[in-house]
């Protein structure tokens, strides 16, 4: 999300699936779209049928590669080197879409003179504090404009003091940084002013030149040595991308967890954003970056987050160090340019929807009822807290961490140390039965009779037994009606949590303790449906927001900061416009154009392609007839086109905002990125990312090779979860010489709870297997369909062996790197069972979003793994041989 | 009377339906856009309540379904082949041609194809079925009537493609019905509706054949010379298939017979020789008594 | 001309889907179906002998052959119904009469034959309604030869390579083998003086069967291989040798020694059964290996010089 | 086939007298084949839904008869999926009607070796008690920050994981309740 959020201002896919059919070239990387999003892939095939070139970059030759025009085998985790080289190719051959780049990106912005690049500091940017493992972004700022009005200069100093206070004052400002980066799901990071710009792009410190220098060493030969991709094939990809960009042609990118699940995940997406901006593909039909989300409503569960560091609409959870009042909480972004400038009205509206009448102006609208975060409370840190006995109660709802989360053993050790655990799911998943049949029971590391966790398994309602909305990968909300009643004790989470909230409030009814006020004042009365649960549409209406007269609002521009409006999630305001559930619209596509605006509802404001102002030239005319999409209608003095314009509807292309304008008024006619405080897309991110303004290739935490580009081996700001249960394989170790990467199969669903329990799916892929190249099979004596044991410093698992040419031995410089493929769906329960590959994965997290590095090193041996206590002994022996200190202090 | 082999324009009329019968429906499976997702296998089983049949990792690439049979009416085949024998130069930059069959860097080809009953113009299974359980529907498709079949198994030996089989614990023969019940209600068969990339196309057979010819020409023009149609020719050994294919390699690579022929084509000769033999036996009988007394 | 294990045809190069068979292995169960093939032949030819015996006044021969015809038909029907997946629906065999289905045609032969041969045998044994019995016998006699030979169409009209390639010879194998069996059985149970026709029937049948079977086994090309190697090969050789020995014994001692006649008869019957099992197993073997389907079809295509069998 | 005893229903007669002389089509039809209709034709209602598996959001039609789901297939009207589904989406009926689905509350006592029954109302009461108790026991008004103690008003005793498979409305109520409760260790699949 922050990858897209900081680059463009919103953290969601910039386009939609149908639009892929308008692309002239589609690059699929960090995704196996034909297998993970097969029905969405029809649009890629549509483009292919019209002559588009489809390129798939993936460590393995998958079902996507089978129908792609080019498959580029790449070493897992080395994507930034490949994409950086493409950026270098574009810049050094002047193949960028210059008019687009100058007008719509911050290429012309000149950066602070104190800024130093990784070229000068051996892989680090200026402002790195080695002890805290974090950056101080002060030197990454825009250089102030030559002449500034007094008001601007005064504002600049004010903000500068605030920045300095932030940096020196708080050593533990991770969550501040994380909250800031994650909160750019909607609303770019705030910079204090538009900065000095050299539109000739010649100034040595302008972003364009900095980028050129930064990626100068990312050559095709470097790509061969880092990624294992032959220069000749690299050039074919580069040609395909550049030939299919510009006024007449557009290229689209598709990615998924193949990019997000890395310790440099956000930066991989940043590189793609930079490349697409240089090629001028953002905001245009057949262009953009399609973030392919995994679960049905993962976009929804970050827009309306069950996440620790954000509130609905990407409002940051208040941070104890900075936000002790409503004003402090909104100060960071209030008043800046762009729609994010109205953050106070969004925040107050949220507090009104939480605490209703109890929230008044004089009590900061109950701001003080909000709990505050003090750093990283992400799931892996919480699991560590469970192991250390600091967290006692756990709800696991529609998720299966024992198989789906990384370092499965830590997950189970954590759950074994709880007082109570509530699991809500359709089937008895591994996370509910770890105490009875988990892997640690077999090895003796845990003993059932000594696990004190009290476990409640409450059956859940399926998707046809409850009404509600999902938010899909193209930011579309689609409503589901209820088909049948939930059987037996099954109930929806809506029913369960409403009931739980009611019972908790009943237990605290008489309390005069200040602690309980937030619960007692909570606006928790909803109209009830036939089964006694809250009426789902009433909750959606609350999310949409209501005005002073209680009527449903239709746009977030109607939200006010005076408490007269309430809104559960400001970016979803409009989903209940005109008192109608817009997400429930089902106008058949044959009665609409391809944009199909009357099917479901897309946030924000039902806009299907974001930043579509950029689909028109600076003067408002379409870049070309072939790629016409949104343009300026001179007579009607309005923006018009196939989609809801992502711009101020009546703002002329030549409009220049007056000095000191704030919020939406500060958006100029040539600023398509309306959520960014400078209206431009960020090639260079002065703020908002914990690990640097420009993506830089770092090796994963566990890598078979040294970082050929810099002395700095891994991401300097990566988040390490230091725990005896999370030892790391030393890099380029002979004991763990191979790379493994986990992935999904079409026939199964993530942790297997919804597919390994179904005969029709299990018979399609019945047993866990690993995919290895013929060369590796020969080297380690692995037989096709035989057994293999894969071991890392965490644990060892077994899997059947599939020897296939689809896994290529990659030549990196003078040596071969072998990659092992591991589908991760299996666990101890279900029709067929097996070991969970995620048990192998180490916890090294991306500093922006705390997602783990799914790539790691391992060893592989023929035969099944040891059983019982012999397993931990076998793994410990490996650790010893690799020189990893036993359970002592991390080196 | 009814024709036994060779071209046949109106299979329904040949099976006794009057002139206002609906057009002949069928499948055209364009394997060049198949992504091997097996949605067709699941959608078919879900609609027809076909039982699951075995959890076995076969090692045959991603095909653990193995073959068509009584409890598998759709089967997606997976073949991993080196791209070298593509009949096209793979060295040097590929033309801008649609290389859907090959990975651009001459590494590997991964063929996928969703196999199904061919609903032949001259169907061996239908011809040999003694009870009339197998019959030609008004849509020109070939269907087993489960309330009639007594499990004699003759159809299993008469199918040149090895599609139909007896279901072990049930005793009767089963195969794809081209969703005969859905067709009666004007609906699309479950597999065709589910197929994400429309590799499986359902429609009137004549129109599908035209569409297939256009697609073949389009692929040849893009340099994919290995593309060929299989079962489209009304003059082939089964009179052309109701469900035909666009393949990217020899048929036997997918487990399909290169030159399938309906046994009925030689039935005339079979009956003739049976007649001769019967006469011979009768002759023997007479001769046996015409000789000397003892 | 003993044939060794070595197949006549060298190993051939062909592509397949992981070596899996292309056509399905026939689902007919053994011993049900091979036994049915034998019993059909026995019953059919016994009915012919019975008519001959009735006309030529050989009461012992008539009694044995009438019982053999009726018994064979009944046992055959039981074997056939037992082989069905849904035996309770055996009557569906008479739902339609399909000339394209040898089994449908066969059902309309077996059913009346069983009735008529049963009636003839019953009337003969009980003496009731002799004229009707005789009439039924004639009917059975007429249906005898078709019953004995239609089973060849049953196998010949399949896609099983070993059977389909041999569809011209199989009727003669089955017809000959049926005659051989009927004659043999009669030689066992009928006194020498009345068994002359049985001997002649057996000898002639054997000759026809051996000639036809050898032309199948010795055929050039891959498809004869299943009849040469493995169990089917052995069975075919045992049957051929058995039949030849029985014929020699019949010629030399048939007329003189009651014991020799009985032994020869028994050998004839055994050889006939073995032939059926040999041919049945050969068919299964040719279905299980894809080469027997692919290679001959490739050769056929090549012969038609790749004419537009498949539009490229 | 028609009951062989009713002479007129005998297909052989239809074969001999009709146009289907070889008995390969019209003559061989059984009554069942004539009356055959798809089970969805007799559904009580068709409900608009969306596949619960991945984020493409394929629209589904859910056919219901006598309170049971009899079919789930793609909705051709959808501009995203055009009526198509992947293998998982196509298995949706089996997902919602799976015999191994748990429909009764399961409860495991601390240190116990097996599940036991527990009625739902009691279970939710017990959970509410535990939430209140754990919240009280691990409540924290302030925490050490870089600039000294700062007000946090939260509990670190309770955590929650889950929601990418849940509805927006459900995630909303969960975050609202947890936030009011002071529980901040709230996470979901966006993190894995």
Automatic annotation (TrEMBL), chain A:
The EC number(s) given in the record are 1.17.1.9
Keyword match Transmembrane helix: no
Q: What is its main location?
A: other
Tell me the protein's name: Formate dehydrogenase major subunit
Q: Which NCBIfam families match?
A: formate_DH_Act
Sorted alphabetically, the keyword list is: 4Fe-4S, Iron, Iron-sulfur, Metal-binding, Oxidoreductase
GO terms for CC? cell envelope
Q: Please give the InterPro entries that the UniProt record associates with this protein.
A: Asp_de-COase-like_dom_sf (IPR009010), Formate_DH_Act (IPR048158), MoPterin_dinucl-bd_dom (IPR006657), Mopterin_OxRdtase (IPR006656)
Coiled-coil annotated spans: none
What family classification does the UniProt entry report for this protein?
Belongs to the prokaryotic molybdopterin-containing oxidoreductase family.
Q: Where is this region: Disordered?
A: 136-194, 697-726
UniProtKB/TrEMBL annotation, chain B:
Which of this chain's residues are annotated to bind [4Fe-4S] cluster 2? 44, 176, 179, 191
Which SUPFAM superfamilies does the record match to this protein? Answer: 4Fe-4S ferredoxins
Q: Does the keyword Metal-binding apply?
A: yes
Question: Keyword set for this entry?
Answer: 4Fe-4S, Iron, Iron-sulfur, Metal-binding, Repeat
Give the Gene Ontology MF terms in alphabetical order: 4 iron, 4 sulfur cluster binding; metal ion binding
Spell out the InterPro entries in the cross-references: 4Fe4S_Fe-S-bd (IPR017896), 4Fe4S_Fe_S_CS (IPR017900), FDH_Electron_Transfer_Unit (IPR051555), Formate_DH_Fe-S_su (IPR014603)
Q: What's an example GO BP annotation here?
A: formate oxidation
Q: Where is the 4Fe-4S ferredoxin-type domain?
A: 25-53, 108-139, 140-169
Give binding positions for [4Fe-4S] cluster 1: 34, 37, 40, 195
> Single GO cellular component annotation?
cell envelope
Q: Where does [4Fe-4S] cluster 3 bind?
A: 117, 120, 125, 159
Detail which positions bind [4Fe-4S] cluster 4: 129, 149, 152, 155
Q: Which coarse location class applies to the principal site listed for this UniProt protein?
A: other
Subcellular localization(s) per the UniProt record: Cell envelope
PANTHER family, sorted: FORMATE DEHYDROGENASE, NITRATE-INDUCIBLE, IRON-SULFUR SUBUNIT
The protein's name is Formate dehydrogenase iron-sulfur subunit
- Species of origin: Nocardioides soli
UniProtKB/TrEMBL annotation, chain C:
Under InterPro entries, the record lists: NrfD-like
Tell me yes or no: is DNA repair among this UniProt entry's keywords.
no
Listed GO CC annotations = plasma membrane
Classify the source by domain of life: Bacteria
Transmembrane regions = 35-55, 67-85, 105-123, 135-160, 172-192
| Entry keyword set | Cell membrane, Membrane, Transmembrane, Transmembrane helix
Q: How does it sit in the membrane?
A: Multi-pass membrane protein
Localization annotation? Cell membrane
Asked if the Swiss-Prot or TrEMBL record annotates the protein with the keyword Phosphoprotein, the reply is: no
The text of the family note is: Belongs to the NrfD family.
What's the name of the protein?
Answer: Polysulfide reductase
Q: Which organism is it from?
A: Nocardioides soli
Q: Lineage, please?
A: Bacteria, Bacillati, Actinomycetota, Actinomycetes, Propionibacteriales
Automatic annotation (TrEMBL), chain D:
Q: Does this entry carry the keyword Metal-binding? A: yes
Main EC class of this protein?
oxidoreductase
Instruction: Name its GO BP terms in alphabetical order.
Output: anaerobic respiration
Report keywords, A-Z: 4Fe-4S, Iron, Iron-sulfur, Metal-binding, Oxidoreductase
Per the annotation, which location comes first and is thus the protein's main one? other
GO cellular component labels: cell envelope
Q: Does the keyword Iron apply?
A: yes
Family per similarity comment:
Belongs to the prokaryotic molybdopterin-containing oxidoreductase family.
Q: What is this protein called?
A: Formate dehydrogenase major subunit
Q: Write down the species.
A: Nocardioides soli
């Amino acid at each position: 999300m922050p990858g897209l959020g900081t680059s463009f201002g919103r953290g969601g896919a910039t386009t939609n699936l149908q639009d892929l059919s308008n692309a002239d070239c589609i690059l699929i990387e960090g995704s196996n779209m034909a297998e993970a999003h097969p029905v969405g892939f029809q649009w890629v095939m549509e483009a292919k049928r019209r002559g588009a070139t489809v390129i798939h970059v993936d460590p393995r030759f998958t079902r996507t590669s089978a129908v792609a025009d080019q498959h580029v085998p790449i070493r897992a985790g080395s994507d930034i080197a490949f994409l950086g080289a493409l950026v270098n190719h574009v810049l050094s051959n002047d193949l960028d879409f210059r008019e687009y780049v100058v007008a719509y990106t911050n290429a012309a912005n000149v950066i602070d003179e104190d800024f130093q690049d990784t070229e000068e500091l051996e892989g680090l940017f200026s402002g790195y504090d080695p002890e805290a493992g974090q950056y101080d972004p002060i030197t990454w700022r825009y250089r102030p404009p030559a002449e500034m009005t007094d008001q601007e200069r005064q504002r600049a100093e004010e903000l500068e003091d605030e920045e300095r206070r932030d940096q020196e004052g708080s050593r533990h400002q991770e969550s501040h940084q994380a909250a800031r980066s994650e909160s750019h799901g909607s609303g770019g990071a705030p910079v204090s002013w538009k900065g000095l710009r050299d539109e000739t792009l010649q100034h040595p410190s302008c972003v364009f030149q900095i980028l050129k220098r930064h990626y100068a060493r990312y050559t095709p030969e470097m790509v061969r040595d880092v990624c294992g991709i032959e220069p000749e094939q690299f050039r074919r990809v580069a040609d395909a991308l550049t030939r299919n960009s510009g006024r007449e042609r557009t290229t689209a990118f598709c990615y998924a967890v193949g990019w997000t699940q890395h310790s440099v995940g956000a930066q991989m997406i940043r590189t793609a954003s930079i490349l697409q901006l240089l090629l001028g593909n953002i905001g245009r039909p057949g262009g953009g970056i399609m973030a392919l989300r995994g679960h049905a409503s993962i976009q929804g569960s970050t827009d309306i987050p069950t996440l620790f560091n954000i509130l609905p609409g990407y409002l940051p959870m208040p941070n104890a160090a900075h936000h002790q009042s409503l004003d402090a909480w909104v100060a960071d972004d209030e008043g800046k340019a762009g729609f994010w400038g109205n953050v106070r009205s969004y925040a107050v509206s949220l507090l009104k929807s939480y605490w209703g009448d109890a929230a008044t102006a004089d009590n900061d609208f109950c701001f003080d009822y909000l709990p505050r975060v003090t750093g990283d409370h992400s799931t892996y840190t919480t699991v560590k807290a469970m192991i250390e006995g600091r967290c006692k109660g756990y709800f696991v709802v529609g998720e299966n961490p024992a198989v789906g989360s990384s370092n499965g053993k830590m997950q189970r050790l954590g759950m074994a140390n709880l007082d109570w655990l509530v699991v809500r799911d359709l089937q008895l998943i591994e996370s509910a039965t770890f105490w009875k049949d988990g892997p640690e029971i077999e090895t003796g590391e845990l003993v059932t009779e000594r696990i004190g966790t009290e476990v409640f398994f409450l059956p859940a309602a399926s998707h046809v037994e409850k009404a509600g909305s999902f938010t899909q990968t193209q930011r579309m909300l689609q409503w589901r009606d209820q088909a049948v009643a939930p059987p037996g004790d099954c109930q929806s989470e809506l029913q369960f949590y409403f009931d739980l909230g009611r019972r908790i409030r009943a237990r605290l009814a008489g309390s005069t303790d200040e602690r309980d006020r937030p619960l007692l004042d909570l606006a928790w009365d909803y109209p009830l449906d036939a089964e006694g649960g809250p009426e789902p549409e009433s909750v959606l209406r609350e999310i949409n927001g209501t005005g002073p007269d209680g009527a449903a609002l239709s746009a977030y521009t109607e939200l006010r900061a005076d408490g007269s409006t309430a809104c559960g999630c400001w970016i979803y305001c409009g989903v209940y416009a005109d008192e109608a559930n817009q997400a429930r619209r089902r106008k058949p596509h044959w009665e609409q154009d391809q944009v199909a605006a009357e099917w479901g509802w897309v946030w924000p404001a039902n806009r299907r392609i974001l930043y579509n102002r950029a689909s028109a030239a600076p003067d408002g005319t379409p870049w070309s007839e072939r790629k016409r999409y949104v343009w300026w209608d001179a007579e009607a003095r309005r923006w018009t086109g196939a989609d809801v314009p992502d711009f101020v509807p009546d703002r002329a292309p030549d409009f220049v905002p007056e000095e000191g304008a704030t919020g939406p008024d500060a958006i100029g006619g040539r600023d398509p990125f309306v959520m960014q405080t400078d209206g431009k897309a960020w090639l260079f991110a002065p703020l908002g990312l914990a690990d640097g303004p420009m993506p830089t290739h770092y090796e994963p935490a566990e890598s078979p090779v040294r970082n050929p580009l810099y002395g700095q081996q891994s991401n300097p700001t990566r988040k390490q979860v230091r725990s005896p249960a999370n030892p790391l394989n030393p890099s380029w170790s002979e004991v763990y010489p191979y790379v493994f990467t986990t992935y999904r199969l079409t026939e199964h669903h993530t942790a297997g709870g919804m597919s390994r329990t179904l005969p029709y799916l299990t018979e399609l892929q019945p047993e866990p297997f690993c995919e290895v190249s013929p060369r590796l099979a020969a080297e380690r004596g692995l037989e096709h369909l035989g057994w293999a044991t894969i071991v890392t410093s965490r644990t060892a698992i077994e899997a059947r062996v599939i020897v296939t040419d689809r896994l290529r031995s990659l030549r990196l410089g003078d040596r071969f790197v072998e990659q092992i493929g591991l589908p991760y769906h299996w666990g101890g329960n279900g029709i067929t069972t097996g070991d969970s590959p995620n048990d192998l994965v180490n916890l090294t997290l991306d500093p922006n979003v705390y997602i783990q590095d799914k790539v790691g090193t391992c060893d592989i041996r023929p035969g099944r793994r040891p059983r019982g206590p012999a397993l931990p002994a076998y793994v410990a022996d490996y650790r010893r041989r690799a020189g990893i200190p036993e359970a002592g202090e991390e080196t | 009377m009814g024709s036994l082999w060779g071209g046949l324009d109106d299979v329904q009329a040949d099976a006794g339906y009057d002139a206002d019968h609906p057009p002949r429906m069928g499948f055209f499976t364009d394997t060049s856009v198949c992504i091997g997702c097996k949605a067709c296998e699941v959608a078919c089983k879900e609609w027809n309540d076909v039982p699951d049949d075995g959890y076995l990792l076969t090692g045959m690439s991603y095909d653990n379904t193995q073959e068509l049979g009584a409890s598998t009416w759709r089967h997606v085949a997976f073949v991993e082949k080196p791209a070298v024998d593509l009949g096209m130069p793979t060295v040097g930059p590929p033309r801008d041609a649609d290389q859907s069959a090959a990975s651009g860097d001459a590494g590997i080809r991964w063929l996928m194809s969703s196999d199904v009953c061919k609903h032949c113009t001259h169907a061996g299974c239908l011809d040999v079925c003694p009870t009339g359980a197998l019959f030609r529907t008004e849509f020109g498709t070939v269907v087993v009537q489960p309330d009639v079949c007594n499990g004699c198994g003759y159809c299993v030996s008469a199918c040149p493609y090895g599609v139909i089989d007896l279901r072990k614990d049930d005793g009767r023969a089963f195969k794809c019905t081209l969703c005969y019940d859905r067709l009666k209600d004007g609906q699309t068969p479950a597999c065709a509706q589910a197929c994400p990339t429309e590799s499986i196309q359902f429609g009137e057979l004549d129109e599908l054949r035209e569409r297939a010819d256009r697609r073949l020409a389009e692929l040849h023009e893009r340099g994919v010379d290995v593309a060929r149609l299989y079962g489209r020719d009304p003059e082939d050994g089964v009179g052309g298939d109701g469900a035909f294919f666009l393949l990217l390699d020899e048929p036997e690579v997918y487990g399909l017979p290169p030159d399938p022929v309906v046994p009925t084509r030689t039935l005339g000769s079979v009956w003739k020789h049976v007649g001769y033999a019967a006469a011979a036996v009768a002759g023997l009988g007479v001769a046996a008594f015409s000789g000397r007394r003892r | 001309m003993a044939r060794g294990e070595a197949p006549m045809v060298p190993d051939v190069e062909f592509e397949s889907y992981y070596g899996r068979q292309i056509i399905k292995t026939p689902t007919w169960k053994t011993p049900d179906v091979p036994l049915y093939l034998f019993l059909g032949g026995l019953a059919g030819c016994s009915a012919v002998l019975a008519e001959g015996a009735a006309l030529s006044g050989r009461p012992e021969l008539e009694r044995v052959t009438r019982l053999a015809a009726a018994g064979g038909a009944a046992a055959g029907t039981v074997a056939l119904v037992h082989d069905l997946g849904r035996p309770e629906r055996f009557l569906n065999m008479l739902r339609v009469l399909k000339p394209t289905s040898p089994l449908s045609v066969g059902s309309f032969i077996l059913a009346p034959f069983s009735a008529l041969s049963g009636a003839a045998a019953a009337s003969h044994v009980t003496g009731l309604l002799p004229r009707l019995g005789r009439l039924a016998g004639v009917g059975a006699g007429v249906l005898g030869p078709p019953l004995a030979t239609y089973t060849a169409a049953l196998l010949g009209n399949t896609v099983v390579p070993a059977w389909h390639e041999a569809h011209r010879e199989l009727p003669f194998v089955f017809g000959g083998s049926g005659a051989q069996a009927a004659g043999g059985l009669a030689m066992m149970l009928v006194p020498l003086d009345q068994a002359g026709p049985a001997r002649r029937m057996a000898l002639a049948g054997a000759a026809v069967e051996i000639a036809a079977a050898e032309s199948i086994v010795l055929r050039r090309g891959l498809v004869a291989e299943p009849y040469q190697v493995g169990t089917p090969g052995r069975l075919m050789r045992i049957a051929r040798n058995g039949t030849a020995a029985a014929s020699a014994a019949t010629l030399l001692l048939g007329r003189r020694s009651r014991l020799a006649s009985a032994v020869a008869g028994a050998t004839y019957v055994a050889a006939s059964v073995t032939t059926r099992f040999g041919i049945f197993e050969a068919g299964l073997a040719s279905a299980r290996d894809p080469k027997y389907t692919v290679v001959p079809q490739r050769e056929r295509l090549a012969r038609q010089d790749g004419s537009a069998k498949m539009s490229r | 086939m028609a009951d062989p005893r009713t002479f007129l229903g005998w297909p052989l007669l239809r074969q001999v007298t009709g146009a289907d002389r070889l008995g390969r089509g019209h003559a061989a039809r059984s009554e069942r084949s004539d009356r055959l209709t798809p089970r969805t034709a007799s559904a009580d209602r068709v409900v608009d839904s969306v596949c619960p598996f991945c984020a493409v959001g394929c629209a589904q039609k859910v056919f219901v008869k006598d309170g049971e789901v009899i079919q789930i297939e793609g909705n051709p009207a959808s501009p995203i999926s055009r009526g198509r589904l992947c293998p998982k989406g196509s298995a949706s009926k089996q997902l919602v009607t799976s015999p191994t689905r748990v429909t009764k509350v399961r409860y495991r006592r601390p240190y116990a070796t097996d599940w036991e029954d527990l009625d739902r109302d009691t279970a939710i009461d017990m959970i509410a008690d535990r939430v209140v108790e754990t919240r009280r026991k691990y409540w924290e008004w302030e925490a050490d920050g870089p600039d000294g103690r700062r007000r946090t008003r939260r509990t670190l005793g309770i955590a929650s994981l889950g929601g990418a498979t849940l509805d927006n409305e459900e995630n909303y109520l969960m975050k609202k309740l947890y936030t009011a409760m002071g529980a901040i260790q709230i996470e979901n699949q966006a993190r894995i």
